[in-house]
Amino acid sequence: MYQIFFDGLPIYDPRTEDLLVREPEVHLAVGEAGEMSFVIDDDHPHASQLTKLKGILELRADGRPIFKGRIIRDPRDFNLSRQIEVE
């Protein structure tokens, strides 16, 4: 099971309806900086906590961290959803 945390705050947990993101993508490779992106809706309970270039976003698989990075872009769309890009 995958989960996403921002400075320990849960952002994505498939067991909780309030903690969902859309269109998640992850690119991991040996010897390269990884990338992750997802869309978070404005009504997500922790959307306002995500700040660009501050804090650490962490992807965990079965409780073990597999990716850590900082938010480098977070543009809003017409529906106020944010496209989060992490490096």
Task: Please provide a written account of the structure.
This protein has 87 residues and is mainly β. Helix content is 0%, strand content 46%. It is built from no helices and eight strands. The strands form two sheets. The protein has a four-stranded antiparallel sheet, with no helix packed on it. A hairpin with a 7-residue loop joins strand 3 (22-27) and strand 4 (35-40). It is globular. The model has no long low-confidence stretch (mean pLDDT 93).
Task: Describe this structure in a few short sentences.
By secondary structure, this protein is an all-beta fold. Helices cover 0% and strands 46% of the residues. The strands form two sheets. Strands 2-1-5-6 form a four-stranded antiparallel β-sheet, with no helix packed on it.
Rg measurement, Å:
12 Å
SSE string, helix = H, strand = E? Answer: EEEEEEEE
Arithmetic mean pLDDT: 93
Q: Would you count the extended β strands for me?
A: 8
Strand residues, percent = over 45%
Attribute tags:
87 residues; mainly beta; 4-stranded antiparallel beta sheet; globular
Q: How do the strands and helices of this protein lay out in sequence?
A:
Layout: E1 2-6, E2 9-12, E3 22-27, E4 35-40, E5 57-61, E6 64-69, E7 71-73, E8 82-86
Antiparallel strand pairs: 1-2, 1-5, 3-4, 4-8, 5-6, 7-8
